[in-house]
Amino acid sequence: MSPVPPGAADASPAAAPTATASANTNIALIKYWGKADEALAIPATSSLSLTLAGTRTTTTVSFDGADGDADSVTINGSRPSAAELARVSRFLDLVRTRSGVTVPATVSSRASVPLAAGLASSAAGFAALAAAASRAAGMDLDDRALSRLARRGSGSATRSVFGGLVTWHAGHDDASCYAEPVACEMDLAMVVVVLSQRYKPIGSTRAMRATMSTSPLFPAWVEASGRDLQTALDAVRAGDLERLGEVVEGNALGMHATMIAARPGIVYWLPQTVAALHAIRAMREDGLPVWATIDAGPNVKVLTEGARAEEVAAALRDRLPGTAVSVRRPGGGVRIEEGP
Question: No. of H helices and E strands in the chain?
Answer without folding.
Answer: 9, 15
